[in-house]
Each structure stands twice: as structure tokens, then as C-alpha cells.
Write a structure and sequence with these properties.
713 residues; Penicillin Amidohydrolase, domain 1; 11-stranded mixed beta sheet; 6-stranded antiparallel beta sheet; 22 helices; globular
């Protein structure tokens, strides 16, 4: 065969391979991306439109609320169907069927919590007003499924299954999953119990203060300022909930318009309405209010019910989950002859309600509070502002009251929960701190966050007037840590008083001495003080309960350590300065082991982020191109911009009540989970830079328009 023929054959072969590759990419990658323009016949009662702006945000305009929520379900499924199904499976304990043994422990916990059963219970108890939006949303999801079977996305093809139809109970299940993420405290109660078993009672009591002890599962910031503090003379409201990192973002942005409703913002896929955002008259934000809504109860009472469920495991044998249920709830642990059952507000009748469609229509403070009076959980702080110039705060959710024996007697009445309207300061700030007054009429118990973030926000807001939306973003991106700055100062003073001569500590001490407390990615001092804190925290816990130091990882630790170092309480350390220097040396040794020479140390190399699609990210070679990161991050758990490897700002929202089109909203990554969509990761750079993207409301610049017409009769 001549060389020319060989080359011609190779060229043909390469061309065929490229054509095949293009075909595969089109069929499995591009083809499932949503159709966002043209005309669509659908089961709606009147003509509607879905306008997508340059961020891919759907602006849905419908003739009836029923059509509106139907289309919200449809467009959300277009962009996030696999993420919705993944979340549904994770909550119901059916993820191991796809992911294998790695997801088994998560599935078993969901089965112990009986989330699927609770979802059915709460779904059956929905009021007609609650049921209608959820039912319409589910119909929209299912209509998308019916119209797109066979081209739902590469994740479904790779895993070899089609998703089940969406149900009302599935949306309730997503609500329960949110409740769990915001109210789980039983693990920390278990930690405290283990400390009390063998520890020094007085020391353990200090480690777990009654009003600041349990771990707040997720942090958030929200604040509102009145017009006398802003450049426009109208209020500004800011909100950045801190939640576990996910890909895609946990939030989906949309704009919903129908008679009596015009609201925009974000909602968790699977739920109808707007969770955080604004309408034409009011804006609202939310933070977690970590009241203790779970109790792990020593309970040897009779088993009232026993559930046996089979958990399917991909590439493995099925596992039988046996759940015994007592009068207090499911048995979660057994030690010897003692059983421990979990009592949880979400497992009680009426423990989950859906008020957001009603809240989205509120036009003033009174209507806003009326909607919140029905909110059962999780417990939230709601921050409010309106176009009339008012600002407000309202705590909402079921918060159990316990008697001396620890039994739940009732819940705090809504009208007796903390509230505020137009405070004299012109500022309302919530950052998961304790909102209950010192002389509150009811006993207070919860995992409230240390006050560092709230104090920093207050200090920034009080520092000047004339604030605008850009200024709110600056505060959201603040990475000053008052606690870490305090600890660095304590270490430097201790080293100087001890006359430290160790040459390995000289440069780290100098770095801490000149540090300004900013937790920046390129900071050496931020790395040193972070590691020193971890070593000192474990040492403190060891003094309280020997052998349990590694278990103590509560946000309250910062307040406990500041208290100990400020007061130098006896009985903990023979010499606090010596202990601080010893923990500094351990931190320096660890930093060297992790990052090599001192000149190369960077906090961002320790505090970094990599996000990867759950399925496509596992594809060899290709997967790494779909990932976001690694990205070096600033911030910490004690800065306004909370950023750790576990969680960070799940979105940033600023509402400008002088001009709602000047409001800003940015989510991590983008609106779509489809890797070939232009909105898969189009907000990522802006998000990382801490910038805000315009939130189009009155004026929408269309990237695409989908006209919806009723089906032919």
C-alpha cells in the first residue's frame, strides 16, 4: 500500500472519529440543554411567556397562579432535573442505589429519620392554599419529563435510569431536607454527653454554655438599614446565607409574575415560590435561628412501631434498615441497655408548613408577619424592608419549651418571639447570634453563633452614612476576624513574656505581630493562627475530658477560648503563656509539614475549594475540565465572609428599595447544571470576586423568549 493511500486512510479514520465524537457530545451533552425560545404548546389555561435574561434567569409571566407555578416547575426541571432527583434520593435514603456503598451511611440516617414517611404525613396535612402551588409545580416537572424522556441529560444515561415522576410529597421531602440541614444538633448533644460521662463537670459546663454551645449547622448574614443611613433615602437589605458547597448551586433564581404576584429571587429547586428576594413592595432575607429543635432522649419506653426497609446498594448487597420508634421518636443509638430516641420538631404533626407563596404576595409589614405566623420550621430570622422606608425583624418557627425533666410542653407563641420594627438605630443585623433578651421570659437553648460576625457588621454599618448597594457587597466580602486577631495578639504577648529564642518561631511570631487580622488567601499569619487555634482548642478540651480533645469542634470554642485567655481561669493550665507558645510551635511544625518552607506559606493553600459535578466530574480526564477550582479562599468561620472548605456564601443578595432594578444577586457557578449550557458556570468569576450581578425586574433584557400557548382543545 502506497504512503499516499495510508495517509488518506488515516485522514478518513480521524475524520470519522471526530464525527463520532461530535455526535456523542451533541447527543449526550448539547441535546439535553433546554429549549428556551420559540413557541410551546402546554397544558396551561392562558398564554404565558418565559423570558430568559443574560444570566439565564427565567422571568415567567402567566395568566393564573396555577399556570405560573406549573411553568416554574417546568423551567426548573429544564435546568436542574438531575440535581432535584439527587436531592430527593439523598433525603429519602435512596442514593446508594446510584452511588453505591459510599452513600450507604447517609441513606441509613435518612431512613432512621423516616423522612419519606414524614413527607407523606405533612403532604396529607397541607391546606388547600399550600397544596395548590406545590401540585402545580409537580405537574410542571412531570410535563417536562413526559416531553423529554430519552434526552434528560448525560447523568441519567451514565447511571442507567429514568427519574420517577415528581410528587407533592417530593417537594415536602425537599422542605424536610432543608429543615434537617438547619436544625440538626443531635450529634453535638451526643458529643456533650460523652464529655459529661468522664469529664470534669465544671470544665465541661464551660465548654458547652447553655445559650452558646451546640453547633450551628450553617451560618448566614442578613441586615437592613433605614433610608437615613443610605444615599438614596430608602432602605437597603442584604443577605448571604452560608451553606454547604454544592455543584450546581443550591439556589435557583427566577422571577414570577401573575395576577396579584410579582416577585423575584431564589428558591431551592423542588419548591415553588421565592424563598429569598423581593416583590414590588417589600424585600426579605433569612438566616438560620439555631434554637434547639432536636433532643436525643434516653428512652427505654416500649417500641410503638418498627420499620424494616431494604436499602438498595449499587454493585453491592441490599441492606435492611430496622428502625424502632418510641413515643419520643426513632431510636438513633443504643449503649448497653440504654436506648436513645430522637425528638424533632419536624417529626411532629404540623411541624412543616409552606408559607412562601403567601409571603411572596405580602405588601406591608402586617401581611408579612401574618404569613410568618404560620411558619413552623426550621426556625429562621427574617429581615424585612419596604418601599415606604420601613425595616423590620421577626423570629419565626416552632421553638420547643421544655420542663425541668426535659419534656416538651409547648412552643413559644409567635407573638412572644423576638421582633423589631423601625429601631431607633436604623439598623437590623442578624448573623445567627442569640436574638433573645437576657431577661427573656422563657428558658433559652440553642447553638447560637459567636457574636463576631454580627459585631463586625454593626461596626461597619455604624462607621458612616450614605450607603449604597455596592457598599453592602463590601461588607459581605469583609474577611476581618476579630477572634483570630485577638488570638494572634495573645500568642505574640506570650512569646515575648516567655522570652522565646527558638529560631523556628522567630519569623512566625514577627508575622503575627504585624498582622492586621485580615484572613486573606496570601496571608502567612492567617494560616499560623488558624492552626494554632486548632491545637489550643484540642488542648482546652483535653483538660475538660481526657482523650476527647479531637471531638470538640464547636463554634462556641472561639468564645470559650477568648474567655479563658482573657480571664486566665485557674485549674486549666499551669501557665497560659507556656501553653500558647507550645501550641504555636505545634502549628508551625504542622504548617511546615503541609506547605514546606516558611516563605511559601499561604492561608489559601490551606483554605481552598474544588467543586465537581456529582457524576460527570468522575469521568477520567474529562471530569477535571468540568470542575471549578481549586480556588484559594479568604475568610473563615468568624469573618463576615464565611468561607471554609465545607461551606460558604450560597448566594449574595442586595435589595435596593429605591430602585429594585438596581438590586444585585449572584449565585456560585450558574443557573444550569448542563455542562454545555452557557449558564453552567457564567457567574463563577463574578462570585469569586465578590461582585454583584444586576437583578432584572422592571426592565428585562431578553436573551431568549419562549411563548407558551394552551394545548389545542
Amino acid at each position: 500500500m502506497s504512503l499516499a493511500r495510508i495517509l488518506r486512510f488515516l485522514n478518513y479514520a480521524i475524520a470519522l472519529l471526530l464525527a463520532a465524537a461530535v455526535g456523542v457530545v451533541y447527543w449526550y451533552g448539547y441535546r439535553p440543554t433546554p429549549g428556551t425560545s420559540g413557541t410551546l404548546r402546554a397544558p396551561v389555561s392562558a398564554a404565558a411567556t418565559v423570558i430568559r435574561d443574560r444570566k439565564g434567569v427565567p422571568h415567567i409571566r402567566a395568566g393564573t397562579p396555577d399556570d405560573l407555578y406549573f411553568l416554574q416547575g417546568y423551567v426548573t426541571a429544564q435546568d436542574r432535573l438531575f440535581a432535584m432527583d439527587f436531592a430527593r434520593r439523598q433525603a429519602s435514603g435512596e442514593l446508594a442505589e446510584l452511588a453505591g456503598a459510599a452513600a450507604l451511611e447517609s441513606d441509613l440516617e435518612s431512613r432512621r429519620l423516616r423522612l419519606r414517611r414524614l413527607a407523606r404525613m405533612h403532604a396529607s396535612a397541607l391546606t388547600p392554599e399550600e397544596r395548590a402551588p406545590i401540585a402545580a409545580y409537580a405537574r410542571g416537572v412531570n410535563w417536562f419529563l413526559e416531553q423529554n424522556l430519552g434526552r434528560l441529560g448525560p447523568e441519567f444515561r451514565m447511571l442507567g435510569y429514568d427519574p420517577a415522576p415528581w410528587t407533592i410529597a417530593d417537594s415536602v421531602l425537599i422542605g424536610l431536607a432543608l429543615h434537617r440541614s438547619q436544625s440538626t444538633s443531635w450529634r453535638d448533644e451526643e458529643t456533650e454527653r460523652r464529655f459529661r460521662e468522664t469529664g470534669d463537670p465544671e470544665k465541661v459546663k464551660l465548654l458547652f454554655p447553655a445559650r452558646l454551645g451546640l453547633e450551628a449547622p450553617a451560618g448566614s448574614n442578613a441586615w437592613a438599614i433605614s433610608g437615613r443611613l443610605t444615599a438614596s433615602g430608602k432602605p437597603l437589605l442584604a443577605n448571604d446565607p452560608h451553606m454547604a458547597w454544592t455543584m450546581p448551586s443550591i439556589w435557583y433564581e427566577s422571577h414570577l409574575t401573575a395576577p396579584g404576584l410579582n416577585a423575584a429571587g431564589v428558591m431551592i429547586p423542588g419548591l415553588p415560590g421565592i424563598g429569598i428576594g423581593h416583590n414590588e413592595r417589600i424585600a426579605w432575607g433569612i438566616t438560620n435561628l439555631p434554637w434547639d429543635q432536636q433532643d436525643m432522649v434516653a428512652d427505654n419506653s416500649p417500641v410503638l412501631e418498627q420499620d424494616q426497609e431494604i436499602v438498595a446498594v449499587r454493585n453491592g448487597r441490599p441492606v435492611t434498615a430496622v428502625v424502632n420508634v418510641t413515643r419520643n421518636g426513632p431510636v438513633f443509638a443504643t449503649e448497653g441497655r440504654q436506648a436513645y430516641a430522637l425528638r424533632w420538631t419536624a417529626a411532629q404533626p404540623g411541624g412543616l408548613t409552606f408559607v412562601f407563596p403567601e409571603l411572596n404576595k405580602a405588601r406591608n409589614w402586617e401581611e408579612f408577619r401574618r404569613a410568618l405566623s404560620r411558619h413552623a420550621g426550621p426556625a429562621f430570622n427574617f429581615v424585612y424592608a419596604d418601599v415606604e422606608g420601613n425595616i423590620g425583624y421577626q423570629a419565626a418557627g416552632r421553638m420547643p419549651l421544655r420542663n425541668a425533666a426535659g419534656e416538651w410542653e409547648s412552643y413559644i407563641p409567635f407573638d412572644e418571639l423576638p421582633t423589631a420594627f423601625n429601631p431607633p438605630s436604623g439598623r437590623i443585623v442578624t448573623a445567627n447570634q442569640d436574638p433573645f433578651p437576657a431577661e427573656y421570659k422563657y428558658p433559652v437553648a440553642g447553638g447560637f453563633a459567636a457574636p463576631y460576625r454580627a459585631r463586625q457588621i454593626e461596626a461597619r454599618l455604624a462607621s458612616k452614612k450614605g450607603w449604597n448597594a455596592a457598599g453592602m457587597l463590601e461588607i459581605q466580602n469583609d474577611v476581618y476576624s476579630r477572634f483570630s486577631h485577638f488570638l494572634a495578639g495573645q500568642i505574640v504577648q506570650a512569646a515575648r513574656r516567655r522570652g522565646v529564642t527558638n529560631p523556628d518561631l522567630r519569623e512566625p511570631i514577627e508575622e503575627l505581630a504585624k498582622w492586621n487580622g485580615q484572613m486573606e488567601p496570601d496571608s502567612k499569619a492567617a494560616l499560623i493562627v488558624t492552626l494554632a487555634f486548632q491545637h489550643f482548642r484540642r488542648a482546652v478540651a483535653e483538660r475538660a475530658a481526657k482523650g476527647k480533645g479531637s471531638l470538640y469542634d464547636m463554634p462556641a470554642a472561639t468564645v470559650v477560648i477568648e474567655h479563658l485567655l482573657t480571664r486566665r481561669r485557674e485549674g486549666w493550665f499551669a501557665n497560659y503563656d507556656e501553653e500558647l507558645v507550645r501550641r504555636l510551635a505545634a502549628a508551625v511544625e504542622e504548617a511546615g509539614r503541609l506547605q514546606g518552607r516558611f516563605t511559601t506559606w499561604r492561608y489559601g493553600r490551606y483554605n481552598f475549594l474544588v467543586l465537581s459535578p456529582a457524576v460527570l466530574g468522575q469521568i477520567p480526564v474529562v471530569g477535571r475540565y468540568l470542575r471549578a477550582g481549586p480556588v484559594e479562599m479568604g475568610g473563615s468561620s468568624t469573618t463576615v465572609r464565611v468561607q471554609t472548605r465545607r461551606l460558604g456564601p450560597s448566594m449574595r443578595f442586595v435589595a435596593d428599595l429605591a430602585d429594585l432594578d438596581a438590586s444585585l444577586l449572584t449565585i456560585p457557578l450558574g443557573q444550569s447544571q448542563h455542562v454545555f449550557s452557557g449558564h453552567f458556570r457564567d457567574q463563577w468569576k463574578e462570585y469569586l470576586a465578590g461582585r454583584g450581578l444586576p437583578m432584572q425586574f422592571g426592565k428585562v433584557e431578553a436573551e431568549s423568549v419562549l411563548e407558551i400557548r394552551p394545548e389545542d382543545p
